[in-house]
Specification:
Number of helices: 10
Number of strands: 14
Largest sheet: 7 strands, mixed
Strand content: 15-25%
Shape: globular
């Protein structure tokens, strides 16, 4: 029951509800120890990763602006050091909404260059039928990279690497090389179909390729922080990857046969998978459309 309620709430958040529709006063930040120097914070929005130690604090994603004080309070319960860096896994507001507040508090914002590009300009989502205005200058990443960057921090190397267009065109994975922890952002929706933001350059093939890349680096002891869902591992990421491969294969057959989107939706190619993967934010017909459009481009 806890997992079902958790998934229902997180997928509602990802759906892009207006801030006025969310009562952030009732949100509580849950802290989960992943490793002695790594924590995962769960609140409203994308899961947050925290690196703490003698060098300071690095935060991965920062949810919504109204939650910054609660997030900082949760971090302070782990360490009394200020936040030195914030790494954004992609540009969506439930992962970058706290950027301006964190920057004002002294943190350096880091992300792939496409994150800054999209945050700097107006974005339109046909899926949500919503326009997102440019972010204020103080919310923009001040350090950007093209392929990867490493933080030699808190006794570990945090390797941040860009993947080919998947959830968006600016996705990054953070890998604690020594601690054997990954933060995948919205490349991984643990327990549900992914949201593929086609308007931001997303791709079904990219989702599969990103999962494969992490699986090549992971082992049975790895801990994986998903963008949404509970703390995960290689076995669960493998199941997610296998599901996406199967969905892509089924829909690819219809695309090759020249069928229209309406015909493919009517065929319900994910029907037998929906009970396991389609109970959250993205339903079977939506993942079908994402993959169809991705393969048809």
């Amino acid at each position: 029951m806890r997992k079902l309620l958790f998934l229902a709430s997180l997928f509602a958040v990802v759906a892009g509800l207006a801030l006025s529709q969310q009562d952030f006063s009732k949100v509580e930040i849950e802290t989960i120890e992943v490793a002695p120097s790594v924590h995962m914070l769960v609140g409203s929005g994308g899961n947050i990763g925290i690196s703490t130690g003698s060098d300071g604090i690095l935060v991965i994603d920062d949810q919504y602006a109204p939650l910054t004080e609660k997030i900082l309070a949760a971090i302070k319960a782990i360490s009394d050091r200020p936040v030195d860096f914030v790494v954004n896994t992609h540009w969506h507001g439930d992962h970058t909404g706290g950027n301006e507040n964190m920057g004002k508090a002294g943190a350096v914002i880091v992300a792939h260059r496409n994150v800054r590009a999209r945050m700097s300009t107006e974005q339109f989502s046909s899926f949500f039928n919503r326009t997102t205005p440019p972010s204020p200058p103080g919310a923009l990443p001040v350090v950007t990279f093209a392929e990867d960057v490493s933080f030699h921090f808190n006794g570990d190397e945090l390797h941040v690497f860009h993947v080919e267009p998947a959830h968006t065109d600016g996705d990054s994975v953070v890998h604690w090389r020594s601690t054997n922890v990954f933060h995948m952002g919205d490349l991984f929706f643990n327990g549900g179909y992914p949201y593929i933001d086609l308007g931001s350059g997303g791709s079904a093939d990219g989702i599969i390729a990103a999962a494969n890349r992490v699986l090549e680096l992971a082992n049975d002891e790895s801990k994986i922080i998903p963008g949404h869902g509970e703390l995960s591992n290689k076995k669960e990421l493998t199941a997610y990857r296998d599901m996406m491969v199967e969905v892509r294969s089924r829909i690819s057959e219809h695309v090759t046969a020249g069928k229209s989107l309406e015909q493919v939706l009517a065929a319900k190619p994910t029907q037998d998978l929906d009970a396991q993967w389609g109970t959250g934010f993205i339903k079977g017909n939506q993942i079908t459309e994402f993959v169809y459009r991705s393969l048809s481009n």
